[in-house]
Structure formats: structure tokens, C-alpha cells
Amino acid sequence: MTIRVLLADDQTLIRSGFRVLVGSAPDLQVVAEASNGREAVELARSERADVVLMDIRMPEVDGLAATRMITADEALAGVKVLILTTFEVDEYVFDAIRAGASGFLGKSVEPAELIDAIRVVARGDALLSPKAVRGLINRFLAEPSPGNPVGPTVLDVLTDREREIVGLVALGLSNDEIAERLVLSPSTAKTHVNRAMVKLDCRDRAQLVVLAYQTGLVRPGVPQTQ
After folding, report:
1. GO: which molecular function terms (predicted)?
2. CATH class of 3-138
């Protein structure tokens, strides 16, 4: 299956470099390029993109606003956004994930890592660098969301096992790591994660991370019970 990729960056040279890189992978195809956020939203729809590589700083509509527009559009429910920027700082990470992005990487990422990142978010998993995860946990997700409070009762739809697994997802563990921790098969761990996402109406693992901290299921600095 070919993954259709949209490049959204206002710098032609950067788009050109990513186009060559993405095009070198046999299972990836660059279907369009956008130079601002508004174009990114329009092209994501018209070109049926699977993944948008989205820069944060763009004219007219920035990458975060464009991400929110994409994730709020039911017609684009299958589109995943991978944020690429030179500004891998906590504020941007937090805003990008809350906007609905499935991943966040610095533009200095190694070619092989970028290719793998596209594949990861295309299949519905979250992709956050360790630095990004630390930023989310340590500084921002403990803060309440003004005007949009999320209470712990949101999690009542989950089974005990699903709650436990969502907590581990929030710590950045992969399905394989969760399986090892809980003595499950990786496929069983993945099934629990997917069921939790459906029940909580989360697009992907990144939004599970946000919700786990907003509801107090996991708290910064408090380790999960082994």
C-alpha cells in the first residue's frame, strides 16, 4: 500500500529536499506541496493525502491552525499530521499535539527516521521524540485547559486493563514495551490501545497522552505502579 504524503512548508528548498527523500522510499509518494496552511488544508482534501508533513511557521494560516482545521474536518478523518520544525520546544509540542497532530519531529531528523515516522503515523500510532515527550509531561499537560476542563469521569468507559494501558501509553511506551510490562502479546496490547482510542474518541496515541494527563490518570513526576 502506498502512503500518500503532502508537504507543507513555505520554503521551496526544504520542500524539495523532503520531496527527494520521501520519494526515495518505495511505499511513499509525494502527491502535492503547499506553501501555506490554507493550501495544506485544501490539498489534503483534494489530493486524498494520508500524511501531511506540516511546518509550524507558514504565512496566511500557520501549521498549528492548519492542523486544527484538518483534524476538525470529518471528511479528513483519516489524514495524519506530522509536525516538522526547527523549533522543537515544549510550547510547540504541546500546541501541536492538542491541535491533533500525530507526531512532532525536528527538521534535523535523520532521513531514515523521517521515513519511519511517516509510516508510524500513517498506521495510526503516535510519533514523539523523547525530548518532546519530556516536554509534554514535565511542563504543560499538568496545567488545566482553560474553558475546556476534562474530568476523570471521561475514563469511566474504559475497563481496568484499558485504563492501565492508557497510563502506560502516556509514559511513552510502545505496544511491545506495554506487552512486556504486562506480560501480554503485542497484538493484545495494540487491541487494548485501539479500543481505548475508540471509546475516548481519540484520533491516535498522541491524543491518549493528552487525555491521560488532563484527567489525572497519570501525573507528572509520579511513576506508574509496576
Report:
1. DNA binding
2. alpha beta
Contact 122, 3 (CB under 8 A): yes
- The string of pLDDT tens digits covering residues 21-71 is 998 999 999 999 999 999 999 999 999 899 999 998 888 899 999 999 998
DSSP symbols for 78-90: T-EEEEEES---H
Give the Cβ contact number of residue 115 at 10 Å. 18
Alpha-carbon distances of 113 from 61, 127, 187, rounded to whole Å: 28, 11, 24
**Alpha-carbon span 225 to 88, nearest angstrom:** 30
CA distance to 15, 55, 56, 91, per residue, from 63 (Å): 15, 6, 4, 14
For the chain, give every domain's residue range: 3-138, 148-215
Residue at 64: amino acid letter: L
The pTM for the full model equals 0.71
Q: To 10 degrees, what angle do helices 111-122 and 12-23 make?
A: 80
Cβ(162)–Cβ(154) below 8 Å: no
Element (H, E) at 198: helix 186-199
Separation CA 149–CA 58 (nearest Å): 30
Pairwise CA distance, residues 202 & 10, whole Å: 30
Cα–Cα distance list, 131 to 77, 96, 137, 173, 189 (Å) = 28, 14, 10, 14, 25
Fold of 148-215: Arc Repressor Mutant, subunit A (1.10.10)
Residues in a beta bridge with 128: 104
